[in-house]
Specification:
Elements (H helix, E strand, L loop, with lengths): L1 E13 H11 L4 E2 L8 E10 L3 H7 L4 E9 L6 E10 L2 E10 H8 L4 H5 L3 H12 L2 E16 L4 E12 L13 E2 L5 E8 L5 H8 L10 H9 L4
Length: about 230
């Protein structure tokens, strides 16, 4: 089990603002090694209770909330990351566990037995929690990401766009998922993540956009349309 505790701040940019800020950050930061010329794909299957408690807790702005997901970066992957993110005041705690493709397929079908048999304490905690609260696979969310990294304070600057989703399938490894656009493809989400404090030269570069921090959840955006909230 891996654990990361960081502050996260999110901002909405236009595509032009994204390109300008990206060019500026390239002067100071290295791109994530997984980035190609157009970044990389992120695909996540989110789990929620029968009554969509995690979705509603986010919509209601509760200080302590969580989300559970399986994440891959290509349908060709032979593994997935099972993750729990928990909001704790100004911090986000992310705990993650690498699982095999076979186990990920079972999890995506609502069979959580692989968590119990993994021998990992975090996995057993999630197994008990998900069964007690009757979590089910709910929606797949996919987008393109370009990321910059800085080792000091575990800083990550990410730009996410082309957000799509589906609730008609939970087949995370499907090469031909039929997905709907969640928002305008020209909208880009900037996420600034760091431990302790953000280095001043990075803060100055980001502040050029003069944007206000917003509370955004890709899962909540994806579910809002089908739940009739937008």
């Amino acid at each position: 089990m891996n654990k990361v505790l960081r502050q996260e701040h999110k901002f909405q940019l236009s595509y032009i603002e994204y390109r300008k800020l990206c060019a500026r950050l390239q002067l100071y930061l290295k791109a994530d090694p997984h980035c190609g010329a157009d970044g990389y794909r992120v695909r996540s299957l989110y789990f929620d209770t029968m009554n969509n408690c995690d979705f509603h807790e986010k919509a209601d702005g509760l200080e302590k909330r969580r989300k559970l997901r399986l994440r891959i970066y290509s349908p060709h992957d032979d593994f997935a990351m099972f993750e729990m993110k928990q909001k704790q005041g100004i911090y986000q705690l992310k705990r993650s566990l690498c699982v095999t493709k076979a186990d990920a397929v079972l999890l995506s079908q609502g069979n959580y037995a692989p968590l119990l048999s993994s021998g990992d304490a975090f996995a057993r905690e999630c197994y008990a929690f998900m069964n007690e609260r009757v979590y089910r696979p709910k929606a797949i969310v996919e987008y393109r990401r370009f990321a910059f990294v800085e080792k000091c304070n575990d800083i990550r600057i990410t730009f996410d766009h082309s957000l799509m989703a589906t609730e008609s399938s939970t087949d995370l490894f499907n090469h031909n998922l039929s997905m709907y656009p969640v928002c305008s493809q020209s909208v880009v989400t900037l996420e600034v993540k760091y431990r302790d404090f953000l280095l001043q030269y990075i803060k100055d570069a980001v502040n050029v956009c003069n944007k206000t921090d917003v509370s955004l959840s890709k899962y909540a955006l994806a579910r809002s349309a089908t739940l009739g909230l937008i």
